[in-house]
Request: fold
Amino acid sequence: MPARSCRLRGGWAMQFTLGRVTRDHGDIDCLTWADGADALARELIRLGYAEVAGPPPGSQRDFARDGLESGFTLIDRNHSLTAQSDQQSAAHVAR
Reply:
């Protein structure tokens, strides 16, 4: 991925792969570089989005505008989830 890019994930990614819309979605889920998260946040806020509470900001950043939520899961440059995300996933699985 280029430095300032993101990739679709979740429901919309599946529908894109299928080539058709199978149901409505109330959000958009993406993957993006962790080291670009602050710049992404600044740009989205400049465009009228508000950052909303969600998972810890070290693992995901969530934004909303006009009733649409957009979540950006953060990955590091070796294409893995950030260390904080990995720890949260392990804790969730252990429950």
